[in-house]
Amino acid sequence: MSTQTVELDEQTKDIIKATVPVLQQQGSEITKRFYQLMLTNHPELKNLFNQTNQRRGAQPKALANTVYAAAANIDHLEEIVPHVMQIAHKHKSLNVQPEHYPIVGKYLLLAMKDVLGEVANDDVIDAWEKAYYVIADLFINVEKELYNKTLQSSGGWEGFRNFKVTKKVIESEVITSFYLVPEDGLPFPSYQPGQYITVKADIDGEPYTHLRQYSLSCAPDEGYYRISVKREDENEQGPAGIVSTYLHEKINEGSILPISAPAGDFILDQQDHRPLILISGGVGMTPMMSMLETVIKEQPERQVIFIHAAKSENYHALKERVATITSSNNHVTSYTIYNHPKDTDRCDKKGYIDAEWVSSILPTSDATCYICGPKGFMRTTYVSLKKSHVAEKDIHFEIFGPAESITA
Question: Which fold has domain 276-398?
């Protein structure tokens, strides 16, 4: 199979569009089978995929959504460029390379044959092979630009570079911060507030390398990178987080962590001077802290509303830092929501975020809003902002893990 760009003819496009209803019905089944086939035949690629997301079905669902979006927009692939850009940043962070795409294409087509049976006849498979490589070429070109941009920045690198932990700070019962500087002492690039890095973890007893993405939780150009990591304990949703547990229990000051260069398109628009609304739940605070720390330095006159939801005060990370920023900056107001507070906890709202409360504290609907946290929290927040007449274009969000929508 070649990765050369192929111009799609109308017959091919018609076949692709005709398969859209099938993908809506069986897309997740196809992509689940794809991962089974590919990872069985290329187990080394398990290094690139979060196996927890595989078990929970999140990764197949995300791939199915991407394939569906491409098929539905096959006449106007430029419509999916924002979606491509988001995924391309993740691919860059994971060090995905052009040679991976033919492998993906091979097993995606085999999975379609397996799941669809007679529906996936030779014409359908031929059309999808052509379409796949047009879509793959779009990803490869976007990712190439991202790799080149990083390499051209001061101290930029491709792949993974060793960083030393200079400080480890317990922020709450479940969140710990790690301060990172290059082991080689050489320059390292700045980043946009809201971006993330990938940590490469080679853990004793684990057959494969684990890669996890963590948002940078401080302003750029502080002389270090900081990540604030939630320890994912075993619960009804699944087992304990392998990498988060490893970082909390095994990584200390002086430890070395290989990391990728910063990536991500969930970033603060510093050209916007309207009121800024930052809303986070749990460890979703991390990119918001980077944005907050940045805006008080770069846009000290900009009005900021900072809202954070946590289980209780014991689970509220970086609380003192936010309080210090709020008391020191007249344009910053912060609110705290606890859903299971102790009697001694102090907060602005008990329970959960809701539309009525959001409307009561918003200074204006003409504001730009950033949301990060658990999916259910973000869906509720998104609806609350819409009911408060905030324009959809002004609501930005990031989901930890495979991309999906919170607006459906």
Answer: Rossmann fold (3.40.50)
